[in-house]
Write a structure and sequence with these properties.
Elements lengths: L5 E5 L6 E5 L4 E5 L14 E2 L5 H11 L16 H11 L7 E2 H7 L6 H9 L12 E2 L12 H10 L22
Parallel strand pairs: 1-4, 5-6
Antiparallel strand pairs: 1-2, 2-3
Length: 178
């Protein structure tokens, strides 16, 4: 019998985020809108106490008191997806990179599209910061929570100078790394 999935909603400036765990670590963060929005499934059980620490860290992130998360994670994916997601965890707060740069870093320079697909399948956005991945021309590209959410997260972290973002008040310098 599979582990019970426990869930809770965390308040955020983007609306209520669905969080879920099977007990070994955070398994899911879902935005309230966008192409990859999830809802609790039959058999899931609401349990805010099981997700108290991820909720606390998300509150601190949105209050600009936390730049990196320290949580046990339990994302479900293929070995390639997990390699991409692990790479996402190393993108510094306030920085961006491209799909091509991740593919090259993984030793698969021709796999930009596969990296994009794995990035899009990331079950832990914000925590594994897929919003920090942009097009090679520095354009905002697809995001499961919608481009307004991606724009918000990047502006929240002080990233400026990306195509399609405008220049929000208080925006910082763009630091593109490979």
């Amino acid at each position: 019998m599979p582990d019970a999935i426990l869930y809770a909603y965390a308040d955020s400036p983007l609306g209520p985020l669905l969080l879920a765990t099977a007990g070994q670590g955070l398994r899911l963060v879902s935005f309230p809108e966008g192409s990859r929005t999830r809802r609790p499934l039959d058999g899931w059980r609401e349990d805010r106490s099981a997700l108290a620490e991820p909720m606390r860290q998300l509150d601190a992130y949105f209050a600009k008191r936390l730049k990196s998360f320290d949580l046990p994670l339990d994302p479900v994916g293929t070995p390639f997806q997990r390699a991409v997601w692990l790479h996402l965890a190393g993108i510094p707060h306030g920085s961006v990179t491209s799909y091509g740069a991740i593919a090259a870093a993984l030793g698969r320079p021709g796999a930009s599209r596969a990296v994009g697909a794995a990035n899009g399948a990331n079950p832990l956005p914000i925590i594994l910061p897929c919003h920090r991945v942009v097009g090679a021309d520095r354009s905002l590209t697809g995001f499961g929570g919608g481009l307004p959410a991606k724009r918000f997260l990047l502006e929240h972290e002080g990233v400026a100078g990306l195509s399609g973002m405008g220049s929000g008040e208080g925006a910082g310098q763009l630091r593109l790394f490979a």
